[in-house]
Specification:
Rossmann fold, 10 helices, 13 strands, globular, ComplexI_NDUFA9_subunit, NAD(P)-bd_dom_sf, protein-containing complex binding, NAD(P)-bd_dom
């Protein structure tokens, strides 16, 4: 029996899929959650809250590795919250003898004027390693999959609006990646010596402007989506606009909108040497996300935002 692996954030959009993938390949998974008694997925639920360092004592004992898939974007003080949580988690991982931490961060050029969200992701990368445990970082842009916040913004904008009056960020370049491919990378770097202490960029094969992404989703759904950029639409107004036409809350929307001013594309392809496979294209990722949503809703359920 191999040592267990802890997944912090194992009930979220990425984490729940990762837990399922690890369990399917026979990994002993501990799912860290604030509500273990209500957890009914694969693996073993353990209580822990990164915002409460005392609750982390013992949760990683005996674990060979730990995934960190936690953020506080819905809070105004997310930067300080995430910094404190990452430091506490890294120190506890070291105290528990964990040999590897795997973190899913965000793409973006360090020389750019990064948004608060992306700066926070960079800080978390560093703080997770303060205890001395080697950290493997996977940096991604837009993750395309049913239930993901960035994807839901894209889908809901296309489906809820006959036309879009948009801010300048619709011309920013990004490199979206399918959630299935994110999971393949996350699983692939686990216990991989060549991944220890390294930072990798991950993305799909398509580099697209946000406007292109929106229009390609519209085309797949058989819709037309005229887009009219308005340079004076500020980030604050953009986030309120997103909250009005999607079900993303204003704070989370603002933090994500700020990041949309930054180009987020893959600059280093070395991950392909460590976890070699061909990622799927954007259109295929969109079709899978829409199919998963359709399967969840079922043939007789009403429309849901």
């Amino acid at each position: 029996m191999t040592a267990p692996v802890l997944v912090a954030g194992g009930t979220g959009f990425v984490g729940s899929r990762l837990v399922a993938a690890l369990a399917e390949r026979g990994t002993d998974v501990r799912v860290m959650t604030r509500h273990p008694t209500s957890y009914d997925g694969p693996g073993t639920a353990v209580h822990g809250d990164v915002a409460d360092p005392a609750s982390l004592a013992g949760v990683m004992d005996g674990c060979s590795a730990a995934y960190y898939l936690v953020h506080s974007l819905a809070n105004d003080d997310f930067e300080s919250r995430d910094a404190a949580a990452a430091e506490a988690f890294g120190e506890q991982a070291a105290a528990s003898g964990v040999a590897q931490i795997v973190y899913l961060g965000g793409l973006g050029d360090d020389g750019d004027d990064l948004s608060a969200h992306l700066r926070s992701r960079r800080e978390v990368e560093q703080l997770l390693g303060t205890g001395g445990v080697p950290v493997t970082v996977l940096r991604a842009g837009i993750v395309v999959g049913h239930g993901g916040i960035s994807w839901e913004i894209t889908r809901q904008l296309v489906e809820h609006l006959p036309a879009m009056v948009t801010p300048r960020w619709v011309s920013t370049l990004t490199q979206p990646i399918a959630i299935a491919d994110v999971i393949r990378y996350l699983v692939g770097v686990l216990h991989e010596p060549a991944a220890l202490g390294r930072v990798f960029d991950i993305g799909g094969p398509d580099v697209l402007a946000y406007a292109d992404m929106l229009q390609r989703v519209a085309a797949i759904e058989g819709r037309r989506l005229p887009i009219l950029p308005v340079p004076l639409l500020t980030p604050g107004l953009s986030s309120r606009w997103l909250a009005f036409v999607t079900d993303v809350d204003t704070r989370t929307g603002r933090n994500l909108v700020d990041s949309m001013a930054n180009t987020v594309v893959v600059r280093d392809t070395s991950i392909r040497d460590v976890v070699p496979f061909e990622p799927m294209g954007y259109d295929d990722a969109v079709r899978l996300a829409l199919a998963e949503r359709g399967a969840e809703r079922g043939p007789h359920r009403g429309a849901r935002r």
